[in-house]
Structure formats: structure tokens, C-alpha cells
Automatic annotation (TrEMBL):
Keywords recorded for this protein, A-Z: Oxidoreductase
Name under which the protein is recorded: Succinate dehydrogenase subunit C
First and last residue of the signal peptide: none
Single GO MF descriptor: succinate dehydrogenase (quinone) activity
Oxidoreductase keyword on record: yes
One Pfam assignment: CCG
EC numbers on record: 1.3.5.1
Residues annotated as transmembrane: none
Residue ranges of domain Cysteine-rich in the record: 8-89, 158-247
Length: 303
């Protein structure tokens, strides 16, 4: 384990507390197993998933400056397990830190709106970090390997990074946005075999699903087919919105593309926690639309 206890201001986001409740559940199980302390930001607001700025950039910046300020009050980094939340809140943090040097009037405007609502000001004194980055950069792969009690030997995992984690921010210090390897590094650390395929860093189709549903499902179907054709036993994603399009809507995707898929899609903390000996029930693996049974059977669990 790391020499010091890791502690974060936890921003769970909306989807993990609703449609993907198993992500909230498995993040809790994983961090407890690793001895990571989470202080949940109960007063945090939805990041907007990139839609606020369509009406007002100032709205997106102010809402998320408040979210960041909640973590700053605790003197802790803000941790999220949602790539979309990471992209949006991380980008706001990046913008406002830059404006502290180049456009102080704008930051003052944001903080003026926060003060009007009785909120603490944004100071730019912390960072926004996805769970994946926390595992790779803070906890460390050597320490994670030492905690593995049930290696995922023989399980072929296809990472699905999606858009926001890699490209929403100007600087990603923990991975290469074009040729990422952090998820594959985690897979190898827990004993699984990474599967590479073209679509792993592309959009899942979720952002257009409300107004271009068929095109959205075709995008999701293309990625799932590529992963299957590359030999994957499952997909693993760090984003609950990607999970919705790839897992929850997979039966609809099958109808659009005319091919049976049935590829299980796991949340990142579910996969890692399985290797730590956490039970499938504790991880909410029964909640998925596409059965995770084949994955559990391959790992020797009773289904």
C-alpha cells in the first residue's frame, strides 16, 4: 500500500447514483479494499456533462467552480469515477487557473456569482482527478499488484476510454491522449490480458443518442463488434455514460446493426475489485443489462 493514506473529496456525479448505481457501489467497495478514504461532496451539483456551455460558458464555469471549491474547502483533490465529469470539471479547473493569470476579471465574476449564492470562492488550489489516474499515479501499480488476491488470468479485456477522459483537457499528465495505455497497464497488473482495437479511444455515441439514435447505436455497435472480433471477453470503461450506451442499450444496438453481440461491459472499479477478492454481489454485477455471467464463469465464480 502507499506510504500514506490516500484521501479525496469524492464527486460521484449523477449517473452513478441513478442508472448506474453499481458504479457507486463498486467504487465504494474498491476504495475500501485499497484503504483509500473518500469524503463525499454531498452538496455538489451536476457538472452538466458538457451541455451547460451550449447556453452559457459562464454557467458551466460557475457551477463547476463551486464543485471544485467544495473540494478546496477540504484541502483535498476532487476525485470522480466518471470520464465525462472529469472532462468537464477538469476543463473548467484548467480554464480558471489560466484565467487567474490572464483574465482575473473573469474569475472575479465567477466568484462574485458564487458569493451571491453564499458559496465559497474558487481559488485554484486543488486538482481534479479521475479514479483511473488516482490508481495509476497515486496508489501505484506496484502497490496495487500487492493487493491482488484473485488474478484475472485468461480474461481478455478491451478498454473503452471514450472521449472526455483523453481529450477534454489541454494537458493530461497521466497518459497519452492519442495512444493511451493506463487502462491496459491496470489490466496487466490485475492479471488480465489487454485487447487492442481501433475504437477504444473514440466516442461511444451517447452524446447524440437523444436526437440521432440510429447513428448513436451504429457507433456503439461498431466498437463492440471490433472488440469482439479482436477476441475480447468483455469491455471495460471508466465512464458511466459510455456504459449506458454500450451495455444498457446493447439489445437495441443489436437490432440496429443486425448482429448478436452480448459482450459484457464492466465499470473499471468492478474489474479491479474482482482481482482484490471482492464478491460479484458487492460490485453490483447482477445489475447489468448484458449478463456478466460469462466473465464470472471464466474467472471461476459460481453464477
Amino acid at each position: 500500500m502507499p506510504s500514506a493514506t490516500l484521501k479525496y473529496a469524492y464527486f460521484p456525479g449523477c449517473v452513478a447514483q441513478g442508472a448506474c448505481g453499481e458504479l457507486y457501489q463498486s467504487t465504494s467497495a474498491l476504495t475500501q479494499a485499497l484503504g483509500i478514504e473518500l469524503v463525499e461532496l454531498k452538496k455538489a451539483a451536476c457538472c452538466g456533462s458538457g451541455t451547460f456551455k451550449e447556453d452559457s460558458q459562464l454557467l458551466e464555469d460557475t457551477v463547476n467552480a463551486r464543485n471544485i471549491a467544495l473540494a478546496e474547502q477540504l484541502n483535498l483533490p476532487l476525485l470522480t469515477h466518471c470520464s465525462t465529469c472529469q472532462g468537464v470539471i477538469g476543463h473548467v479547473d484548467e480554464r480558471l487557473k489560466e484565467f487567474q493569470d490572464t483574465d482575473t476579471a473573469y474569475v472575479e465574476k465567477v466568484n462574485g456569482l458564487l458569493k451571491k449564492e453564499g458559496c465559497s470562492p474558487y481559488k485554484g488550489t486543488t486538482e481534479v482527478k479521475h479514479l483511473l489516474w488516482a490508481l495509476v499515479a497515486d496508489y501505484g501499480m506496484e502497490a496495487l499488484a500487492a493487493q491482488v488476491s484473485r488474478k484475472l488470468t485468461g480474461l481478455k479485456c478491451a478498454a473503452f476510454y471514450g472521449c472526455y477522459l483523453l481529450r477534454a483537457q489541454t494537458s493530461i499528465p497521466y497518459d497519452d491522449p492519442v495512444h493511451p495505455e493506463s487502462m491496459e497497464t491496470v489490466f496487466r497488473t490485475v492479471g488480465a490480458t489487454p485487447v487492442y482495437y481501433r475504437g477504444r479511444t473514440q466516442c461511444c455515441g451517447w452524446p447524440i443518442s437523444s436526437y440521432a439514435t440510429e447513428q448513436s447505436f451504429k457507433m456503439a455497435g461498431m466498437h463492440i463488434q471490433e472488440a469482439l472480433d479482436a477476441g475480447a471477453d468483455c469491455m471495460v470503461t471508466p465512464c458511466p455514460l459510455c456504459h449506458l450506451n454500450l451495455d444498457s442499450r446493447q439489445p437495441e444496438v443489436e437490432k440496429v446493426i443486425g448482429r448478436q453481440l452480448r459482450l459484457p461491459v464492466l465499470h473499471l472499479p468492478q474489474l479491479v475489485a474482482l482481482a482484490l477478492g471482492v464478491s460479484p454481489k458487492q460490485l453490483g454485477l447482477e445489475r447489468h443489462v448484458v449478463s456478466t455471467g460469462p466473465v464470472l464463469e471464466k474467472l471461476g465464480h459460481k453464477v
